[in-house]
Amino acid sequence: MQRLNKYIDHTLLKAFATESDVKTLCIEALEYDFFSVCVNSSNLAFAKALVSESNVKVCSVVGFPLGAMNTEAKAFEAKKAIEDGADEIDMVMNIGALKSENFDTVWKDIEAVKKAIGPKVLKVILETCYLNKPEIIKASELAMHSGADFIKTSTGFGTGGATFEDVQIMKSVVKNQVKIKASGGIKDKITALEYIALGVERIGTSSGIAIVTNKNSENEHTY
Q1: Which of 9, 57, 79, 90 is an active site residue?
Q2: Would you call 9 a catalytic residue per the annotation?
Q3: Handedness of CA 68, 72, 73, 76 (dihedral sign)
Q4: Which of 7, 38, 165, 202 is the 20 to 30 Å CA partner of 211?
Q5: Bridge partners of 89?
Q6: What is the sign, positive or negative, of the torsion defined by CA atoms of 215, 64, 60, 138?
Q7: What's residue 130's pLDDT?
Q8: What's the topology of domain 4-213?
Q9: Cis peptide before 119 (omega within 30 of 0)
Q10: CA-derived radius of gyration, the chain
Q11: Measured between alpha carbons, how far is 182 from 223 in angstroms, rounded to an integer?
Q12: Are 156 and 223 within 8 A, CB to CB?
C-alpha cells in the first residue's frame, strides 16, 4: 500500500470558500504531500499557481454538484478547466437521466467530457445516495464503458456520502478496469483504511489532515 497521504484529494468546494481559504488548502496539501487539491473551477488557476512547483496535482469539478447541466456546458467547463491547469476532472453524472433510464444520455454526457479533456484523468461521480443497487450497478457500467478512469461515490453535498456497501457494489462491477474514489463523510484514519482495504484508490475529503495525523476532524463537509 502506498502512503496514506497519497490517497487524499484535499478538497474545498464550499460556495463561500475565499481566496484565503484556497491558499490555506494548498499550503496544507504541500505540507502533508497530499495527492491533489480539489477546488471549484473559479479557484483553479489560483490553486495551480500555488502548487505548480510541487508534486501536488490539481483537480476541478464539473457539473457540480447536481450533474443536471447540459452536456455542452459540462464539456466546455471541463475543457476550460484543463486550459486553466487541471490535472484531473471530477464530473457529476446526469443522475436524473440515469434514473429515467435514458442511458444514451448518460454515456454521451460522460463521453463528451472525456473527449474534451483528452488524456487527463476523469472521475465520474455517481452520487450513490440517490441510487438503489441496480442503479449503482448500471451507473458503474456506463461510466466504465464511456471512458471514466475512476468512478466515485459522492459529491459530499447530497443526502449522504460514501458507504462500504456502495463501494463493494461498484467494485463488483468494475473490478480492476476502473479505479474507485470514495468521498463524503470520511473523517478519520480507521474509516479511510477500511475503504482502502475494499479497493478504493483515492479518497476525497476536507479532513485529510485529521486522517493522516489520526486526529478528530470537525469539518462540516467531507467531500
Answers
A1: 90
A2: no
A3: positive
A4: 165
A5: 60, 122
A6: positive
A7: 98
A8: TIM Barrel (3.20.20)
A9: no
A10: 16
A11: 9
A12: yes
CA distances from 202 to 7, 72, 108, 198 (A): 5, 28, 25, 12
Instruction: Tell the residue number behind the cell numbers 502533508, with chain if given.
Output: 32
- Cα–Cα dist 108/173, whole Å: 20
Q: Which residues pair with 37 in a beta bridge?
A: 10, 58
Sequence spans of domains, the chain? 4-213
Residue segments in the chain with a per-residue pLDDT below the cut of 50:
220-222
Question: Which one of the listed residues 114, 138, 181, 187 is annotated catalytic?
Answer: 181
What's the pLDDT tens digit per position in 163-196? Answer: 999 999 999 999 999 999 999 999 999 999 999 9
Instruction: Report the amino acid identity of residue 200.
Output: V
Element (H, E) at 29: helix 19-32
Confirm whether 99 is a catalytic residue.
no
Residues 114, 152, 166, 187: which is the catalytic one? 152
| Residue 90 bears catalytic tag | yes
Ramachandran region, residue 27 (left: φ > 0; alpha: ψ -120 to 50; beta: rest): alpha
Distances (CA, A) of 35 to 21, 58, 64, 125, 174: 19, 9, 21, 18, 23
Determine the Cα–Cα distance for residues 47 and 59; give it in Å rounded to an integer: 10
Q: Which three cell numbers stand for residue 66?
A: 447536481
Phi then psi dihedrals of residue 59, to 5 deg: -120, 145
What does the pLDDT read at residue 220? 45
Residue in 41, 16, 38 with CA at minimum distance from that of residue 25: 38
